[in-house]
Amino acid sequence: MRPCTSAYEPSALVIGILGTGDFSRSLARRLVACGCRVVVGSRTPSRFVALFPEEAEVTHMEAANQADLVFVAVYPEHYSTLVHLKPALAGKALVDVSNGLQIKQEGPSNAQQLADLFPESSVVKGFNTTSAWTLQAGPRDGSRQVLLCSDDQMAKSSVMQLCRRMGFIPVDMGLLSSSLEIENLPLYLFPSWRTPIICTLALFIFFYLYNSVHEVLHPYITGGKNKLYKLPIEIVNVTFPSVALVMLALVYLPGVIAAFLQLWRGTKYTRFPDWLDHWLTRRKQFGLCSFLCAALHAVYSLCLPMRKSARFQLLNKAFEQVRRRSSDLYLSVGIMALGLLSLLAVTSLPSVANTVNWREFTFIQSTLGYCALFMGTLHTLIFGWDRAFLAAQYHFGLPPTFLLVLILPLTVLLSRLALFLPCVNHRLRQIRRGWEKSRHIRFTLSSEDCFNGLENVSNV
Amino acid sequence: MRPCTSAYEPSALVIGILGTGDFSRSLARRLVACGCRVVVGSRTPSRFVALFPEEAEVTHMEAANQADLVFVAVYPEHYSTLVHLKPALAGKALVDVSNGLQIKQEGPSNAQQLADLFPESSVVKGFNTTSAWTLQAGPRDGSRQVLLCSDDQMAKSSVMQLCRRMGFIPVDMGLLSSSLEIENLPLYLFPSWRTPIICTLALFIFFYLYNSVHEVLHPYITGGKNKLYKLPIEIVNVTFPSVALVMLALVYLPGVIAAFLQLWRGTKYTRFPDWLDHWLTRRKQFGLCSFLCAALHAVYSLCLPMRKSARFQLLNKAFEQVRRRSSDLYLSVGIMALGLLSLLAVTSLPSVANTVNWREFTFIQSTLGYCALFMGTLHTLIFGWDRAFLAAQYHFGLPPTFLLVLILPLTVLLSRLALFLPCVNHRLRQIRRGWEKSRHIRFTLSSEDCFNGLENVSNV
Amino acid sequence: MRPCTSAYEPSALVIGILGTGDFSRSLARRLVACGCRVVVGSRTPSRFVALFPEEAEVTHMEAANQADLVFVAVYPEHYSTLVHLKPALAGKALVDVSNGLQIKQEGPSNAQQLADLFPESSVVKGFNTTSAWTLQAGPRDGSRQVLLCSDDQMAKSSVMQLCRRMGFIPVDMGLLSSSLEIENLPLYLFPSWRTPIICTLALFIFFYLYNSVHEVLHPYITGGKNKLYKLPIEIVNVTFPSVALVMLALVYLPGVIAAFLQLWRGTKYTRFPDWLDHWLTRRKQFGLCSFLCAALHAVYSLCLPMRKSARFQLLNKAFEQVRRRSSDLYLSVGIMALGLLSLLAVTSLPSVANTVNWREFTFIQSTLGYCALFMGTLHTLIFGWDRAFLAAQYHFGLPPTFLLVLILPLTVLLSRLALFLPCVNHRLRQIRRGWEKSRHIRFTLSSEDCFNGLENVSNV
Which of C10, C295, C349 lies at the smallest CB-CB distance from B352? Predict the structure, then answer.
C-alpha cells in the first residue's frame, strides 16, 4: 500500500511537475518545504532553473518518469503537446490543476480530456481552486480546502495525503465526472447574490421614482415649486428604509409560505417548488442586502442636519410650536431595529456562524430576526401614523410610500402569528417530525428532522 | 487492519444507514459523493426510494448486515424497535447521531442506551452537532468539526477516517462516557453570555431609573415641569455610556483581582475561586456587551440634533454666549475610545483572532483595551468636570450619574498602575514563571507559563 | 510501521511529558481526553499530582522511558538539567514546545540545541504556537494549525497523527532548520502592519499641521482671530479624509507601477524590486488603514452639529441665502464611497475571504475598490470645486488641502485608465500569459499564470 508509505516518508516520494508557470513554481516551493523530492519538467529547463527553489530539479519533460505522482500545470490547450510522454506517465497519478476560461454547462472537462489522452494514467482533478499565492504563502491565509475527484481511489487517496501534508484539507468530490463542477467553481461570480441584488435594485428604483413623484413632481405641477434639491438626499433617505423593510419581509416570507404549504399538503415528503427552494437558500443574502440599506438609511438620516438646505427649514420648523414630542420614540425603536439587524449580520459571518450551535443560530436568525422585523415595522408605523390620514398626503391619489411599504411586513408578521396558534403549531410540529396526513402511522426518522424542518422554515 | 484499507478504498467500504429521515437522506447523498457504497435500511423502502440518490440502495432493515459501519439515524425513543437487528449488527460499529430533547445533567445518554441494547456492537457517538444541511451542502459552510467518542478505538478510528473523507475534521473526545456532553452541546443557548447579558440589563435598569429620578422626577417635583419627553432618548443616551464604561471596567477588574490574589498568596499553583475563574472566562462577552452599549450611545448622540424637541432648545442655547469651547475635546476623546473598542471587537471575531499570534492578541486586548478604558474615563471626566461641583446637580442629595460611573473605572486604572510599580511587577513576573513564596527554588516549567499567566490576568 | 498503529490505537500509545507547567498540564488533560496514556515526569511529583487529571500518571523524570513519544515542556535554559535522561530518551521522538524570548535572526534554535543534547533521539519542533488555553479548551476556539518540523520523517509523522487526533491541523514545515522561523512566529508584533501604520501616522501629522496653518495660524496672524477651538474637531475632521483618500490611492498605486514595469520590461519573469514586492503584499493593510480614517471622518462629520461652538455659526449661516443646494450631492457620493469601503473591509476578513473564489475576490477588491477610489475623489472634487478658485483660499500662497490630496488619486485613476487602452491592455495580457518581448515564442505555462498576474497587479 504505497499511498500509506508515501504519507509517512514523503522524502521517499518523488513529485513531478509539468510546466513552469507561476503555479508550478509555487507548488514546487511548497512541496520542497514539505520534504518531498520535486522534479520539474520543462521544454527549456535552462531558462527556468533560476525561478525555482534550488532543492527542486528542473529538467526536460521526459524526467517525469522518475515521479510517483505528476502535476500537470499546463494550459489545457497544450495537453496535446504532452502526448509523447504517454509511456513515461503510464500507471502514474496525473493531477489536473487547470481552470476553464468560461463556465461550461456540459463536458468534457479539462480533466476528462486529459484522461482521454492518457488512458493508462489515472487522472485526479484538484488544486484548481487554490491560487499560486495560497500555495506560496502556505495555507495559513486563503481557503484551505482542496476539492478532489477521480475515478481511481488509490490515486485520489495518495493526492489527499499529499494535501494533508501541505496543510490543506482535501474534500473528496467523488468520481471524475464531477470535475466539470470543480472547474466551474472559480468562475462563478456571486451566483447566490444575483437574485437578492436584482430585487434590491428593482425595489430601490421603484421607490425612488415613486417618492420623486410625491416629493418633487407633485409640488412642481401643483405649486410650481422647484424641489429638485431633494433628489440627492431626502428622496434617497426615504427610499432606503422602504427597501430595507420590504427586503427584510422577503427574508421571512418564504419560510411562512413553506410552513403553510406543508400544512396544506399535510406532509413534508413532497419537494417545495423550485422557486421556493431557491428563495429559501437565498434568505441570508436578502437579509444582508436589507441590513445594508438600513445602515445607509441611518447614515443618511444622521447627515440631514448637515445639509445646507436643511438649515433654513430647521429655523422655520424650530419656531413653530413643538408638538408630538413623544414621537421621538420612533427614533429609539429605529435604532434598536438597526442594532438587532447588525447582530444578525455579524452572526452570518462564516467564522461566527461556525461557533454557534443550531439552537443558538435559530434563536438569533429567527427569533431576533422577527424582533427586528417587528421593530422596523413599528418604526415606520409611529413615524407615519398621523400622516397616514391626512388627505394632503395622497398626491395624485397615490397613497404615501410608507403605507405601501407596510403591506408586506404586516402580512408576514400576522401570518407568522397565525402559525403560533396552538392547533396550527401542533400540526406543523407533527408534520416536521414526519407525520403524514395520508396515513396516520409514524415512521422512524432521524432526530435531525425537526432541525432540517426548522432549516426550511424559520431561519435566515 | 481494515480501517486503514477502508480509508484508501472507500468504494470497497459499505456504509449502512438505519432510518429515512432528512439526516439519513443528506448523509446518504454525501457518502455517495465520497464514493462509498450506501445501504439504507427502512421499514417501507418503496415509499422512500424516490427521496434518496439512485446510487444508494434503499432496502429493508435487515440489509444492515452487509454494511461494515452503520449509522443509526432513528429517534432514541425507537431504538427498542431495532432489537431484532441485534444479530445483523453484532461486531459492527454503530454511529449514534441522535440528539437529546433537553439538557441532561446525568446519563445514560442516548448513545449509552444504544450500547446497552447492542452489547456485541461497538457504539460511536458523533455527527449529532452536524446538521443535515451541512452534510448536504458539503462542509464548505457550517462548522466542520465532528466530535466523536467511543469505548472501541478501532471503531472510532474508522469513523474518524470516514469523517476526513467527507471533508470534516474529527475531534476525538475520548470514551463513550463523554457522549452525554456531546449530546448536550447542540442544546445550549449561549451559556457563556448569560452572566454578561444579565449584568448589562441590571446596570441598564439601575442607571435608567437613577437618571429618570434626576432628569424627570426631580424637575417635576421641584418645578412641576413635565420632562417626560426625555425618556425615549435623552435618558437612554445618558444610560448607555454609563453601562458601557462600567462593563468595560468589569472586563479588566477580574484580571487585576487575579493579579493581587496571586501576589498575596505568593503562588499561582492554588486555583482561583470559582466565581473568579468564571468571570475571567467571560471577559470577552463583557467586552462585547460594553462595545454594543458604546456604539448605541454614539448613534443616540448623533440623533440628538434630529429630535423635534431639540430644535427649540437648540435656538435658546445658540443665542446664549458660547463658552467652554475647549470642551468639544470630549467628543474627540469619545470617538477615539469608540474606535479602539471597535478594533477590540473586530479582533475578537474568531477568524481574526486565529490569524494573530499570542503576543499580538495580548497587545490588542490588554494594551489597547486599557487605552480604551482610559479614554472612556477621560471622555466622562471632561464632559462632567464642571458639572461635578455644582450643588445644583445633587438632586435629592444624589450625586450626578457620571460620578457613580467613574468609581469602578478609576479603581481599575489605579490598581493597574499599582501593578506596574517595579517591585510589584517583578514579583508578579516571578510568580507567573513558577516562583513560590513557600520555598524559594524554581521548578522546571513549560515556557507557556507566562502565557497562561497573561491569559489569566491581562487579556480580554 | 508504529506511527500508523499509534494512530489507530492511541490508547496503546504512551505519551510522556517532561515538566509540570501550565502547558504540560493542559497537554496532559487534552491527551487523556483523546484516550492516550500519559506519563508526566517531574522532579517533585508529589507537589504536582493534584494539578493533573487523575488518569495521568505523575512520576519521576526517569519514567520517560516508558513513553513512545515525549513532550519536553521545560524552559530551554534548563535543557541541560535533562542530560541524565539521555539513555531513557534514546531512540524516542522528542517534541520541543518551547518559545524564544526575543526574535532570533540566526540559530541555533531551542529545538536545535535540544537535538545537539540528545543526538540519539529525533527532535520534532511544534506546538509552540499553541497556547495552553487552546489545548485545554480544545481546538474549538483559537487557531487550529500546528506547525511541525523535524529531520526525522517517521517521528514527524507520528506527531502529525497525534495532532490530528487532538483535532489540530498539522502543517509540515520541513526540516529542523526551519524551527528558528517557527520559534519566532509567536514573537512577531504585526510585522505586516508596520509600514502602513507609519504611513498613516506620517500623513496624519503632515496634514494636521498643514491644516492648522491654514485654519488657525493664518487667521490669527492676519486677523488676530483666536481659532484654537478648531483644533480638536474641525481640523481633525479635515485631516482624516485627506489621509483616507491618499492611503486608498497608495493601495492601487503599486499595482499600476507593477503593470507599467512589466510593460516596459516586456516580461514578467524578472522579479520586481523589493520595495515594490513589499508594497504589493501590504495593500490589504493600507486599505484597512484608509477605511479606518474614512470611518472616523464620517463620525466626526456627523458630530459637527453637536458642537457647542457650531450652534452660533449655524444660525449665522442659516440666515444667509442658501445657494449651491445641488452641492448636497457630495454628501451622497461620500456615503456611497464609505459604503463600498466597508464592503472591501468586510471581504478582507479571513473567514469571508475564504468563502469567495478568486474571480469574486478580484471583482470586489479591484473593481469595487476602484469605484470607491473614484467616488472618494469625486466627493472631494465636488466639495472643493468652487473653493479651489478663490484666491482667499491660498493662505501664505499654500494651496488648499484638498488640492494637495487630489494629486495622487487622480494620477492613479488616470494611469489606470491608460492601462485600459486596447493596445496597452492587450500587450499586458500577453505578458501575463508568459509572452516575452525578447523572444516571441510562447511557453507552456500553468493556467494560474493570469491569476498570479492579477494577484501582482490588480487586487488589494
Answer: C349
Closest in B170, B332, B447 to C232, CB measured: B332
Coil vs helix vs strand at C337: helix
Distance of CA B438 to the CA centre of its chain: 37
C228-264 b/e (C-beta count within 10 Å ≥ 16 → b): ebbbbbbbbbbbbbbbbbbbbbbbbbbbbbbbebbee
Helix (H) or strand (E) holding C172: strand C169-172
Closest chain A residue by Cα to residue C455: A133
Residue type at position A150: S
Q: Which residues of C touch A133 (CB under 8 A)?
A: 451-452, 455
A144 → chain C, closest CA residue: C354
Cell 450506501 sits on residue: B38
Which residues of C are less than 8 Å from B327 in CB distance? 308
- Residue type for position B420: F
With a CB cutoff of 8 Å and minimum separation 6, the contacts of A400 are A214, A384, A387, A388, A393, A394
Nearest C-alpha neighbor of C438 from the set A44, A78, A60: A44
Chain B hits for A455, CB-CB cut-off 8 Å, are: 131-133
Cell numbers placing B127: 455527527
Q: Distance between CA atoms of C109 and C102, rounded to whole angstroms?
A: 11
Residues on chain A touching C328 (C-beta within 8 angstroms): 229, 232-233, 307-309
- Check if the beta carbon of residue C159 is closer than 8 Å to that of residue C97: no
pTM over the 0.90 mark:
no
3-class DSSP state of C95: strand
Kindly give the confidence (pLDDT) of every residue in chain C, 460 residues in length, as a single tens digit, with 9 standing for 90 and above.
233 333 445 456 889 999 888 888 889 988 887 778 899 998 888 888 888 888 888 888 877 788 889 999 988 888 988 888 888 898 899 999 998 888 888 878 999 999 999 999 999 999 988 878 778 766 555 567 888 999 888 898 889 888 888 878 788 888 898 899 889 888 888 888 999 999 999 999 999 999 999 888 988 888 888 888 788 888 898 899 999 999 999 999 999 999 999 999 888 777 789 999 899 989 999 999 999 999 999 988 888 776 655 555 555 554 443 444 445 788 889 999 999 999 999 988 888 887 788 788 889 888 999 999 999 999 998 887 766 677 677 777 788 888 889 999 999 999 999 999 998 999 888 888 777 776 544 443 333 333 333 333 222 2
Residue among C169, A317, A237 nearest B171 (CA): C169
User: At the topology level of CATH, where does C14-187 sit?
Assistant: Rossmann fold (3.40.50)
Whose cell is 478505538? That residue is B153
Hey, are the CB atoms on C269 and A165 less than 8 Å from each other?
Answer: no
Q: Find cell 417618492 and name the residue.
A: A211
Of the candidates C34, C131, C306, which has its C-beta nearest B174's C-beta?
A: C34
Taking an 8 Å cut-off on Cβ atoms, the answer to whether C358 and A131 are in contact is yes
Note whether B11 contacts A305, CB cutoff 8 Å: no
State the Cα–Cα distance between residues C289 and C282, nearest whole angstrom. Answer: 11
CB C148 within 8 A of CB C172: yes
Buried b / exposed e over A329-368, threshold 16 CB at 10 Å, is: bbbbbbbbbbebbbbbbebbbbbbbbbbbbbbbbbbbbeb
Give the three-class secondary structure for B11.
helix
Which cell goes with C40? 508526566
**CB-based contact A318 B311, cutoff 8 Å:** yes
Residue type, B86: K
Contact partners, residue A219, CB within 8 Å, separation at least 6: A225, A227
Beta-carbon neighbour count of residue C274 at 10 Å?
Answer: 8
Helices C22-33 and B449-457 pack at an angle, to 10 degrees, of: 90
CA dist A382 → A298, A388, B308 (Å): 17, 10, 14
DSSP-based three-state secondary structure for C100: coil
